[in-house]
Amino acid sequence: MADNRAALSGDRLLAYAALAPSAFLLLLLAGVPTITVFVTTMQDVGMGDTDGPFIGFENFAWVFAEPAFYTALWNTFVWVFGSVALEMLLGLGLALLLNKNFAFRGAARAIILAPYLVPTVVAVLTWRYMLHDIVGVVNAVLTNLGITDQPLLWLNSQGLAMTSVIMVGVWKFFPFVVIAILGILQSIPQEQYEAARIDGASDFQQFWRITLPYVLPVFLLTALLRTIWSFNKFEIIYLMTGGGPLDATTTLPILVYLKAFSDFEFGRAAAIAIVTLAILCGLLAVYFYFIKRAEARQ
Q1: What predicted TM-score, i.e. pTM, was given to this entire model?
Q2: Distance CA 170, CA 294 (A)
Q3: Helices (H), the chain
Q4: Structure confidence at residue 8 (pLDDT)
């Protein structure tokens, strides 16, 4: 027994020693910048300054008193939950479809996964031309079909700009959801479906009793990753609308950029970034709660 305990202790020390360099590098790359940003929030730092006078929590007080912050926060939640919800539903549906046997299934998989392989800048610029109010193909198709009698201002209208950005984001990133869910679908033992069919279970009952319990943990984990990435997503919105029109698509990352590089108020920009981090940590806690419940149910 003592020998087993000594061997186990030695294995743990070896594991910690093997992980130590990676942990140190991760701490260096993630921890140091985060601490630097937090220190910046306590200072009045302008363009070209490495530090400034200490002002305490004044930058945080400004954040919570600034109407632009709440506008950006609302836009961020609309963008994140709108795009993630559509990505997850579309990805789940297509993954279930691609998991079935049908003709040209390989070609269908390649076509569906293609948007994820396109560079983001190329995809955004292509969609900008497609959504152009005068020369865009989207308006041309809608007009020819008689759906609308005049061009729609997809990127220049407060009512349509966010919808357009969400549409492009969903098109670009739903293949990631398809890949994640399709992988777990293909690992489900087929014997369970055969037994369910022998017992007379309908397709919906097979999905509810067999497929969903297997898929749910991966589904929630994928939703967690997409939420984190979407919350911090900058290039799609900035390249398509620049945060406009009239702050209609200004999210928290866009507001951080504008405060830092348009208004040259780095302390306030850092404060917004730290608040964004705190919000993300809260969302992570909620997601982990549901993931643990899903795993326990499985």
Answers
A1: 0.86
A2: 25
A3: 2-26, 32-41, 58-65, 67-98, 105-117, 120-130, 137-144, 161-185, 190-198, 203-206, 212-231, 235-240, 252-261, 266-297
A4: 57
Q: What tokens were used for 166?
A: 């969400």
Residues near 288 by Cβ (< 8 Å), separated by ≥ 6? Answer: 224
Give the span between the Cα atoms of 94 and 190, in whole angstroms: 19
How many Å is the maximal CA-CA distance in the chain? 83
Closest by Cα among 88, 28, 80, 38 to 60: 38
Q: At what angle do helices 266-297 and 67-98 cross, to 10 degrees?
A: 40
| 74-117 confidence digits (pLDDT tens) | 999 999 999 999 999 999 999 999 988 888 888 888 888 889 98
- Main-chain dihedrals φ then ψ at residue 186, nearest 5 degrees: -75, -10
Q: What is the residue whose two structure tokens read 């009045």?
A: 44
**For the segment 142-161, what is each residue's pLDDT rounded down to a tens digit?**
999 888 888 899 999 988 99
Contact predicate 256/272, CB 8 Å? yes
3-state secondary structure of 54: strand
Residues 6 or more apart whose Cβ sits within 8 Å of residue 214: 184, 185, 187, 188, 298
Question: CB atoms < 10 A from the CB of 93, how many?
Answer: 14
